[in-house]
Each structure stands twice: as C-alpha cells, then as structure tokens.
Here is the input.
Amino acid sequence: MSPRDTFALSRRSVLRAGAATGLGLTVPSVGAADQSRSTELTVATRNLGLGANLFALFLVESSDELARTIGDLYMDIERSAPSARMRAIADELARTRPDVVGVQEAALIRTEAPGDGGEDGLDAEAVSFDFLDELTDALDETGAPYEVAQVKTTADAEFPGLVDDERIDVRLTDRDVFLVRSDADVTVSDSSAGTFDEALEIPVGDDRTFRVERGYGVISATADGRDFTAVNTHLEASSESVRGSQADELASVLDDIDGRTVLLGDLNDGPAYKNGAYETLTSNLADAWKQARSDADGFTCCRSATLDGEESMAKRVDHVLVRSGVAATDAKLIGAGAESRLHTTVNGSSRTLWPSDHAGVVATLELGSGVSSAANTETGAVAETTATGGNGGDSTATLSDEDASTAEDASTAEDPSNGPHSTTNRSPSSASSPSSSPSASPASSSDESETATESPGFGPLVGALGALAGVAERLRRRGD
Here is the structure.
C-alpha cells in the first residue's frame, strides 16, 4: 500500500486494524467445507457527511476571499459538531449491530499555523477533526467496539484559510473505511484497495490539472466459516460520465471475484438514473433493498449541507448490492427519521442537527451455498420466501404528495460549477453500457424520479477542491 493510503491512520487506528493492507486483490474461493445451511451476516453502508456547504468556493475571486471562504468552511465543520454526530452514528450502529460496515466520507481535517499558503504542499499535520477516530472511540464507549479493517484514502488537498483573523492552512482528506464489529463471528483474512483509472480532472493553471481520485476497498473474510468478499466504494458525484466509467471499472473488478460478494457504498446513482452507474452494477448484482423492502422508498439522500435544515430526502443513492449465494432477508434505514436528530451545544450555542446529510442502510443477508441471488432479483423469489419486511430502528423517509409533485428529471451536467454533487439522469448517449442486457437490472422498471439538488459532503468537496486549486493557482499567477 502506498504511503498516501496509510498516513491517515492514527496510531490507535493502526493498532485496531491489525493486519497490513496489500495492493493486490485477494479473491476468496467458496470452501469445500461449506454445507447446505445458510449463515446470517448483517452489513451496513454509512456516509458520515462533512457538515459544510462547499459551493461558495466557486465564487472566490481574490486571495483574501479565498482565505476567508476556507476559514468559513472550517468553522461550518466545527459548528456541525463532528464529535456529537459521530456519537449519534455510533449509537445507530450499536443499536443495529451490523457485522461489517462500509463507511464513506470519514473526513480528516488538519491545520498548519502559521500557514504557508499551501506553497509547501501537504504538510498540515495538526488534527482538528478526525471523523474515524471519533466514530471508533464512540463505538467503544457504547460497548459495541469495531475494528478498522481497511482504509482507502482518496481526495487530499491543502489550502490557505483565515480563522479568527489568523492565517492558517487547512488540509482536507477523504477516506472510505471498512469496520468490523469486534465480537462478530467475522474473520478478515486479507484486505486491499484500488484507485479508479477514470477520475474527474479540473484544469489548474495553463499546464496542469487537479485529479480527483476515487477508488474502492476490498476485504476477504469469513462469517461462521463461510467465505465472502465485501467491497466498499464512493463513486464520483460531480461528473456523470466519470461516475459511469468508474462503475464500469468497478464492475470489472467485481467480475474477477469468485463466490459470495457484497458491494457497499454511496454510488451517487440510483434506480431512477436510467443507464447509469446503478444499472451497470445491478446488471450483475441484486439490490438488497429491493429484495427485502420493495414496499418502501428507502430514500437516503440528501439533506442540507450544514445538517440543520428540515429537508426531506428524495434520492436513493446509498446501496447494498449482493450476488452468488447472498440474499437479503431484511433492510432498514438508520439516521432517516426525525428521532435521529441530535441536540448539542457548539461554542455556547444550542444546535439541532442531523447526524449526516445521508441516511445509512443496514441489510441482513443470508450467505447460502447455492443460487446467485441476482438471478432471482427481478421476480423477487428470494425476498418472498425470507424477507421479514420490518423496518426496525429509524423509519423510512418518504415524500409528501406535494413534495413528490415537485420532483422532476434533471438535465445532464458535467460542469462542477453547476453544483457539485448535483445528481442528474444519465442519458443513454452518455452512459456506459452495462455488461449485460438492461432487462437483467431490477431498476429498469423503477418509477422513482430524482431532482437535481445540492448534496453536501465529499461529493462536492472533491470537485470543489479541484476548482479551488485552479483558483489558487490563478491567484498566484496574478500575484494577488
């Protein structure tokens, strides 16, 4: 593993992680000792949310304005009460007790004072907020400790800021993480990470670009002696074509995995995005939510960037996908209902906040020894025989008739300045073809609709970081 994928682990997290992460993809095979019985495995996908609205970065026109904007965003993150939010998310996980959790947007924010304006590269090391450490500490306190099994570092950038009239550098790092519950009957035998070849590239100055890298993490594991492979990812938010190409790459990775497979992640795409990343991936995997909860919307995205609004969610972009002897028997949302809101005090002011701009998905799976679950997805045969249909925990967020009447298809937009993390329908002309016919996809007949909207977090962060890098370079060239 490269230093870039390991530096963000604190000493404590390294001790928690145990085994080293390798670069090669280790593929488990289905053991001959497997019998006809099935094994239950509970998994979750959870986007932690940054807690700041990054759209202001696109309006920066001077070095002073750049520093003020970065400072304001830093303060927004502070006002979002990361520690309190991670405790709330820890409570969700402690209550639902998933064995394996795929976490996205495990932000790490560091500073350097006095700042050098980013001239010396990535050298800010004073930790202000470490979402991963906050989350694992809170899980320990709940009595439901989790081990860090794998970390994939993606976006990492540093820029000048002005906070309380002090010039500092602010470094924002994005990570996707696998957590495994310490007392679960799950043993991780190997882990790996990969970076997508396709990435959003934003011009920085006249002769170079800022590359917004994204990737995936993989763990090879056993649950009660049954082998399975789990993959965690967060696909590009700001460019539909890049997201589609990343889905194609991920589909190829998944094709090389034999045996029981579980994909967790924020795909920034869902059933309503015709010919999009979701359809590419569900052409060969089954949607656990559709298997177990076809009666519920399952919306997971997105709330106000600053996490203090009343907005309803109207998108389903966070997913658990399965195949090859894995079937979902139940699924529910966490962090979706009003009861999930937390009340805290930040700098002497009372705040009511959502834990994240996303809801999480928890799915109960059966690891069998026979038929690929994907083959039964369209008819729902697997779900009909085993699904409990219970929502448990938090209630599913739904749209009122008035809200639903305002939803409309969005036009395709590749320019991040049109709104980072704006989600758009992927037209057939811009889509990457799924690896099998559209009829194989359980999403092909979905009537959900999506509205182009701001969806905060590292979706906009990575796009905004690229734009910000361009602004900073332009200002340096002008001598501002």
In short: The first helix runs from residue 11 to 17. The longest strand covers residues 146-163. Confidence is low (pLDDT under 50) at residues 1-34, 371-457, 473-480. The radius of gyration is 21 Å.
